[in-house]
Amino acid sequence: MATEIERKFLVTSDAWRDHAHASEDFEQGYLCGDGPASVRIRIEGEAANINIKAAVVGTTRAEYEYPIALADAREMLADLCVAAPVRKTRHWVRHAGHTWEIDVFTGANAPLVVAEIELSSEDEAFEQPPWLGEEVSDDSRYYNHALAFAPYGQWKQ
């Protein structure tokens, strides 16, 4: 079984921007709202994939991802999604031997900025960069699937 071990944090400043070594625009939509898994279509620049991820809260989840034709992904995003697509720019930042993914959300989820780190085990040690804030790995509101249905911009702050 394919497994993702990921920790998610809020970001407290733009200090990471000086260290970003790459970035890519993402657009993703969901083909179902409820169930034991989320099924997502994602366009990353000029590539596309379908992703199936266990609908559980926490740092470790089953995840499967497969490439699909870009034209098919565009059609599915336009015609088959059950909520508005989530749009963001992902930036990659290396820090102390790990690569962080910083997602800067746009549209209905602006001004949310979230940092994620993928680990090889749940107890893997890592150094937290100074721009890292509160951990939200166990807060399902910050999952992209949840943001499609309840965008950050609509939360009572």
From TrEMBL:
<dbReference type="InterPro" id="IPR033469">
    <property type="entry name" value="CYTH-like_dom_sf"/>
</dbReference>
<dbReference type="Pfam" id="PF01928">
    <property type="entry name" value="CYTH"/>
</dbReference>
<feature type="domain" description="CYTH">
    <location>
        <begin position="2"/>
        <end position="149"/>
    </location>
</feature>
<dbReference type="InterPro" id="IPR012042">
    <property type="entry name" value="NeuTTM/CthTTM-like"/>
</dbReference>
<protein>
    <submittedName>
        <fullName>CYTH domain-containing protein</fullName>
    </submittedName>
</protein>
<dbReference type="InterPro" id="IPR023577">
    <property type="entry name" value="CYTH_domain"/>
</dbReference>
